[in-house]
Each structure stands twice: as C-alpha cells, then as structure tokens.
Specification:
The protein is built from 5 helices and 15 strands. The longest helix is centred in the N-terminal third of the chain and has 20 residues. It has 2 domains: 38 residues, no CATH class; 145 residues, tt1808, chain A, CATH 3.90.1570.10. Helices cover 24% and strands 34% of the residues. It is of the alpha+beta class. It has a 6-stranded mixed β-sheet. A 3-stranded mixed β-sheet has the order 7-6-9, covered by helices on one side. A two-stranded antiparallel sheet has the order 1-2.
Length: 189
C-alpha cells in the first residue's frame, strides 16, 4: 500500500490493471501501480496521428509489421508500466486477442500542452529502455515540426528535426527507410 498524504491507496498489480482497463470506459495509463486518465485531444492532434498512421500502414504491412493507433497499449517491461502512444509500429506476430505490444520498433507521440512534459521526460526515458525500439518521434501539434530520436548501433540516441518543406525519414522499417512529407502530416496548413 502507498501513502498519499495520510490516506492509504491500494496499488494495482499489472494483472489487476489489465482487468480494470478492459472494462473501463476511458483509457488509463499505468505507472508504478497507479493509473492515470488519458486526456482528450484536439482535431489537430487526432489528424496528425491519423495522417501518420495512414502513411506508415502500407510500408509497415509490406515488411511484415503492423501500425497501431492510440487504442493499443505498449508495455514497458523494465519500468512495469503501460502507455498508449498516439502511433506505434511493431513487427511482433499479429495476435488478434492481444491488448498490448511489447516490442515496438517505432513510437510516436503528438504533443499536447497537458502531456508535453510527460512525453519528453517520463515516456522518453521509459521508451528508450525498450530493446526493440529504434525510433521515438514527437510531433508538435501547433507547428509543422517532427523530432525523431534514433538509436545508433552503439546504443546512443540522436535527434533529427524535420520541418514543413522536408520529409521525415523513418529508419525503423526493416529493409529500407520510409520518407513521409511533413506537409502531408500537417495537411491543413
């Protein structure tokens, strides 16, 4: 049990969380035995995520991988947590009854004012602990800017920024890179 200002709070196990989450009306992320409600999104946020999913789906499928929306959780083993990234790509075998992935190759978060600090700190640290992860991308919601953090062969991480008149180069696909025009991601600008 945890202590929260004198009030005892029962921490959930992963199994309890997954059972509760299956019946929940709203999505909750899970960190250190506690759940955190997901906030709503703007039209811009949703459109960026949908555009990215749409443009990555076919290249992923042609390489035996799958792209998922924010309805699919990612389990971060090392930290014992579950997050709902805005877009994820994995080459794990497709299992229809699964509710989370454990070996993503690419994770993308679209920044919101309420989640920016979490996406840039907590999630970045947790995501980088996933051995299969090759890239973590952060998409600005209010400006055409995509930041791609890439794992190098030595295990270090590099940052490349892509702006409006450029194409984002995703290198986490097996066999070849996939280029996505930033102007297509932010197609209303």
């Amino acid at each position: 049990m945890g202590n929260n200002g004198g009030t005892y709070v029962e921490l959930l196990t992963e199994t309890q969380y997954l059972r509760v989450e299956e019946a929940a009306r709203e999505k909750n992320e899970y960190v250190a035995g506690r759940t955190y409600a997901m906030s709503g999104v703007t039209f811009a946020h949703d459109r960026i995520a949908i555009n990215l999913m749409t443009m990555l789906c076919q290249p992923a499928r042609s390489r035996g991988c799958s792209v998922y929306s924010s309805d699919v959780k990612v389990k971060v083993e090392e930290f014992g947590c579950f997050y709902y990234p805005d877009v994820s790509m994995t080459c794990e075998p497709f299992t229809p009854a699964s509710v989370f992935i454990t070996a993503p190759r690419l994770l993308i978060e679209v920044l919101s004012p309420s989640t920016e600090t979490i996406d840039r700190r907590e999630k970045m640290i947790a995501y980088r602990s996933i051995k299969s992860l090759a890239e973590y991308a952060i998409a600005q919601q209010d400006a055409p800017l995509i930041e791609v953090y890439r794992r190098t062969p030595t295990g270090d991480w590099t940052l490349t920024e892509y702006r409006h008149n450029e194409s984002v180069l995703f290198e986490s696909f097996t066999g070849a890179s996939v280029a996505v025009p930033v102007s297509d991601i932010y197609d209303w600008l």
